[in-house]
Amino acid sequence: MASAIRFAAPKIASALRPATRLAPATRAFSQSAAAREGLNSLNTFTEEEQMLREAVANFAKNTIKPKVFEMDEKELLDKSVLKGLFDQGLMGIETPTELGGAGASFTSAIVVIEELAKVDPSVSVICDVQNTLVNTIIKKYGTQAQKEKYLTALAEGKVGCFCLSEAGSGSDAFALETTAKKDGSKYILSGSKMWITNSYEAEIFLVFANADPSKGYKGITCFIVEKDMGVKVAKKEIKLGIKASSTCVLNFDDIEIPADAVLGEVGKGYKYAIEALNEGRIGIAAQMIGLAQGAFDEAQQYMYQRKQFGSLIGDFQGMQFQVAQVATEIEAARLLTYNAARLKEEGKPFVMEAAMAKLYSSQVAEKAASKAVEWVGGVGFTREFPLEKFYRDCKIGAIYEGTSNIQLQTIAKMLKPKYA
């Protein structure tokens, strides 16, 4: 057992009776609080999580990195990379093993997203959406038949996407106009979606549509729609960054879907979307800290190879101060993210912490990517060096799965009851 340290209590004020001498009180403190069960640092991982991190880092370095430039130029995900994600078990991380998944923890998914983003944030978000949004909702609210059919398919070879946003409903997500009208034993799905990640490769679509517009957002329902039911992938967006990750417009032209395509309860889609996005924000935070670390690492390697005025760039004090500041901010963002992930796993409230993690991680990613370009100079501005891509990729972190203003609004809303 750890030995105890004894502290004398401070002297009591003279208001106490002067004639009375008090024996010094003592308090016992353990020298090793960390030794107490359950109290670990946020950088403590299970053996499984650590092994997964190392395996994904190797996969990203050996399989993804050689294809990053080409995928970015073509604005298209390489099929071998997508196959690799499935072969490595990275598209069904929390899916139970009996359904073909890895049966791993939520934190495992966060670790995977982070490691992939260090090499290519485009590939990272493909994995993120599949795991933290699509699989999560089906696993939580699907019937046993839906789980067996779709979670298995999503773990073994099919891409899914989360279809919420529309032209008139971005941050105001529940102003959506896509409808699903009941017609006997089927629904007629009509409308369109925009900004849908993974939609070019997807075969399974979680579509949020209003089954009863008279009830407002309480009519919103989630449907599992298969591509061959009539989903039309329309315009593929040409984007600033994360170009290998597809973002498309989807059209549903009065397509018929069976009644058993309803996921969960009719009218509860708004609830499912909010819950999933709260978890998904931790995934985006992980993507952003991975991006920040990837840019930082690339710049540091260069700075300790190139010399100016007879010294390595990294040895100049002015550079060292900037590097130290960014490193500190990346670590702070990482700890916010890991904390939110652990809170979610433990079944504790995490919505505010998830918003904080996403907000701050996106800010740090922008700063780290921008500084990294500056630190290496002219070569950082060229397409042949990876830093300009990190710089382009980082901006999306402040936009998707809830803009930075939405995160600020969420944080402020959750703080208010403590003081109002």
Q: What is the structural class?
A: alpha+beta
Summed over residues and divided by their number, the pLDDT gives a mean of 92
How much of the sequence lies in strands comes to 15-25%
Helix content: 40-55%
Poorly predicted runs: 1-23
Please tell me what the overall shape is: globular
Strand order of the largest sheet: 3-6-7-10
Count every beta strand, where a strand is a DSSP E run of 2 or more residues: 12
Largest sheet: 4 strands, mixed
Helix and strand element order:
EEHHHHHHEEEEEEEEHEEHHHH
Radius of gyration over all CA atoms, rounded: 25 Å
Instruction: Figure out the total of helices.
Output: 11
What is the terminal-to-terminal distance? 46 Å
Written account of the structure:
- β4 (179-183) and β5 (186-197) form a beta hairpin.
- The protein is α+β, with helices and mostly antiparallel strands and 420 residues long.
- It is globular.
- It has helices spanning 47-64, 68-74, 79-87, 106-117, 121-141, 144-156, 269-303, 317-345, 351-376, 387-394, 404-415, and strands spanning 4-8, 26-30, 160-163, 179-183, 186-197, 204-210, 220-226, 232-236, 247-258, 262-263, 307-308, 311-312.
- Residues 1-23 have low confidence and may be disordered.
- The two termini are 46 Å apart.
Task: Produce the secondary structure layout.
Layout: E1 4-8, E2 26-30, H1 47-64, H2 68-74, H3 79-87, H4 106-117, H5 121-141, H6 144-156, E3 160-163, E4 179-183, E5 186-197, E6 204-210, E7 220-226, E8 232-236, E9 247-258, E10 262-263, H7 269-303, E11 307-308, E12 311-312, H8 317-345, H9 351-376, H10 387-394, H11 404-415
Helix pairs in contact: 1-4, 4-5, 4-7, 5-6, 5-7, 7-8, 7-9, 7-10, 8-9, 9-10, 9-11
